[in-house]
Amino acid sequence: MEIIIQPTAEAATNVAARLIANLLRAKPDAVLGLATGSTPQLLYRELIALKLDWRKVRTFNLDEYIGLPPEHAHSYHTFMWENLFRHVNIAKQNIHIPDGLAKDIPQFCAKYERQIRAAGGIDLQVLGIGTDGHIGFNEPTSSLASRTRIKTLTAQTRKDNARFFGSEAKVPHHVITMGIGTIMEARQNLLLAFGAGKAHAIAQAVEGPVTALNPASILQMHPVAKACLDAGAASLLLRSDYYRWVYDNKPDWQQF
Ligand code: F6R
């Protein structure tokens, strides 16, 4: 995993935005995997400001709460439209977000997997990380080979996400999420984490053993995974001096 540590969330976001912008310029019909939550909000703002051409871009979101209609204020559909889609020239038919109201969820999940395959697979997957190490909503002990399916949120995640809903009681228990196996098939994974609250999860993911107890640790097995961190999220990394040196001295010819 390439560890990119920047002083602030803004600077770390800037690195991530440049990577995505380069991809969209090189491949206008790229397939992006997208995340929601606090972490990518800055990223989406920066991508909007870059005025890229999204006409042919295809997107697949990681997850959605079960039971929330798309128009619900706290659905990830609403999040994506508010934070990105309505500000860029993306075609509606190219947007894919799990349907929290799907009647037959296993069938819906199998179709989502088929749609990703039919699009040629995900070129670049944006990821945040939960304080418990989840990616997507693959909570600790999720199968490292899992596919898109239902997951039950941990008490920690529901507590963390209560800030969006106003109270913990309103946070749904169940979600549809891309699986870890699905995420691992993306050609590139780009993990973003900001703030000291993420430092423990990041230290475990980057320098701990690969374990289903910290699902993000599977990224150690991915050939092209980058983590863009601010100083807070990187604060418990043992080898941060090394990561900083590597990034600051990266030769021009080194693509990954
Ligand atoms: C959201 C998602 C989650 C979040 C994670 C961090 O689509 O897949 O894994 O990335 O819960 O959330 P924030 O960024 O709100 O701290």
Structure commentary:
- It is built from eight helices and ten strands.
- The chain has about 260 residues and is α/β, with parallel strands linked by helices.
- The protein has helices at about 10-25, 40-50, 75-85, 105-120, 155-165, 180-185, 200-205, 240-250, and strands at about 1-5, 30-35, 60, 65, 95, 125, 150, 175, 190-195, 225-230.
- The strands form two sheets. It has a seven-stranded parallel β-sheet, sandwiched between helices. A three-stranded antiparallel β-sheet has the order 4-8-7.
- Helix 7 links the parallel strand 9 and strand 10.
- Helices cover about 30% and strands about 15% of the residues.
- The radius of gyration is 17 Å and the shape is globular.
- The structure holds fructose -6-phosphate.
- The site of fructose -6-phosphate has 14 residues, from loops.
What is Rg?
A: 17 Å
**Bound compounds:** fructose -6-phosphate
Structural class: alpha/beta
The main sheet orders its strands as 1-10-9-6-2-3-5
What level of helicity do the residues show? Answer: 25-40%
Question: What spatial form do the alpha-carbon principal axes imply?
Answer: globular
Strand percentage lies at: 15-25%
| Overall residue-averaged pLDDT value | 97
Number of E-type strands:
10
How many helical stretches? Answer: 8
Report the biggest beta sheet as strand number plus sense, adding barrel if it closes.
Answer: 7 strands, parallel
Order of helices and strands: EHEHEEHEHEEHEHEHEH
State the distance separating the first and last CA atoms: 10 Å
Poorly predicted ranges: none
